[in-house]
Specification:
Shape: elongated
Strand content: under 5%
């Protein structure tokens, strides 16, 4: 039933792994350059301050992941409701290939649309919290 999601999920996992590998090497070079800069400085001030790469220690990763998962869950629920209400005998004729193909399209579309809406919602919340923090 969920065969349509396997290929994008595998490609996404592979892409994430390659991205993290390149990010690891890039950050390693940045750290080494920073250490070389510190060793070149002859007179050290009383306090050594490293540059702040992030504006604060607060991360919105949990908000993004939670919004995406809520969107995916709602997408599955809405897809199921659409299939049950629009396809005649959806539950009884589960082995019919036409019904499986149509339901796969409906499930996929609902998951992607509502998952995207969840990420857009997380982005809007992040912007509002960022603006309220600056003021």
């Amino acid at each position: 039933m969920m065969d349509f999601i396997m290929i994008p999920a595998i490609i996404g996992i592979i892409t994430l792994g390659i991205y993290k590998l390149f990010e690891l090497f890039a950050r390693r070079k940045e750290r080494l350059a920073l250490i070389e800069k510190l060793t070149e400085v002859k007179s050290f001030p009383n306090e050594i301050r490293f540059p702040k790469y992030f504006s604060s220690g607060f991360s919105f990763g949990a908000l993004k992941a939670g919004s995406l998962l809520i969107g995916i869950g709602l997408g599955l629920l809405v897809g199921y409701l659409i299939c049950c209400l629009t396809i005649p005998d959806y539950i009884q004729n589960a082995g019919n290939w036409k019904i499986e193909r149509f339901s796969g399209i409906i499930y996929g579309a609902c998951i992607f649309v509502l998952g995207g809406i969840g990420l857009i919602t997380a982005f809007v919340i992040e912007l509002k919290l960022g603006r309220s923090k600056k003021e």
